[in-house]
Amino acid sequence: MHGTRTMQQLSRRGTRRTNWMNCIALIAFVTAIPLTHAQDATAPPAAPPATACTTDAAPYRDFDFWLGHWDVFDVASGTLLGENRIERLANGCLITEHWRGVRGSSGFSMNFYDPNQRAWRQVWQSADVLIDYSGSREAQGAMQLEGTITYHGDGRSAPFRGRWTPQPDGRVLQEFWEFNAEQEAWTVWFRGEYRRRENDGSAVDTPAPDSAFK
C-alpha cells in the first residue's frame, strides 16, 4: 500500500514536471515569433532582374551611334540645315530626337526597340508630317526603317524609308525616300550629314531644355 502511494506521488510529480517544461517551450516559441517577423521586416527586398532594354544586350543598343548633339548639313550644298539633339531616356529604353531647323522648323521623334515586332520603331511628329516606320540595323551598320509618311495638310499618305549610316570619321549620313506612285519609283526626300558639335556631351537620360536650341 505504501509502495503504491509512493508510485502515484512520483507519477504526479513527473506529470507536473512535463507540463512545466511544455509551458516553457510554448513561451519560448511564442516569444520568438515577433522577433522573426521583425527580422523579416528589416531584411532588404530582393532586387528585381534588369529588363533587357536597360542592358547592353543586342539589339537594344543598335541606335546608340546616333546619340549626341549634332549640326546637320545638306549633303549636296554643305548648307547648315539645323541642329538635332538625340538622347537616351528611360534607363536606355527610349531614344528621343529634338530637331530645330535654321528657319524655325521643329520636330520630335521617339525611337525604341519593339520586342513584339522584333524591330526598331520610330514615330516622328512635326507640324507638317507624321512618320511611322520600323526596321533594323543592317549587317553593314546602317539603321534601315520603312513605313508610312502622312501629310497633315491634305491627309495624303505614302510609303516612306529612312536610313542612318555611321561614317568612319564619326559623322552620320541620314537619308529619306518617299515612294512616288505616279512615277512608280522611290524619290529622295532628304539627305543630311550629321557633324557632332565640339561641346557635345552626348546627353544620356537627361531631357533637353528648349534653351539648348536657342
Q: Supply the helix-strand structural class.
A: alpha+beta
| Count of individual beta strands | 10
How many helical elements? 1
In terms of quaternary structure, the protein is single chain
Main sheet properties = 10 strands, antiparallel, barrel
Spatial order of the strands in the main sheet? 1-2-3-4-5-6-7-8-9-10
Q: What is the CA–CA distance across the termini?
A: 113 Å
CA-based gyration radius:
35 Å
**pLDDT averaged over residues:** 83
- Low-confidence sequence ranges: 26-33, 35-39, 203-214
Element order: H for helix, E for strand = HEEEEEEEEEE
Shape: globular
* Residues in helices, as a percent range: 10-25%
Q: What percentage of the residues does DSSP assign to strands (E)?
A: 35-45%
Describe this structure in words.
The chain has one helix and ten strands; from the N terminus they run αββββββββββ. The chain is an alpha+beta fold and 214 residues long. It is globular, with a radius of gyration of 35 Å.
List strands and helices in order, with pairings:
Layout: H1 2-42, E1 68-74, E2 80-89, E3 94-101, E4 106-114, E5 119-126, E6 129-137, E7 143-151, E8 157-166, E9 172-180, E10 185-196
Antiparallel strand pairs: 1-2, 1-10, 2-3, 3-4, 4-5, 5-6, 6-7, 7-8, 8-9, 9-10
Features:
214 residues, alpha+beta, 10 strands, globular, disordered C terminus
What's the gist of this structure?
With 214 residues, this protein is an alpha+beta fold.
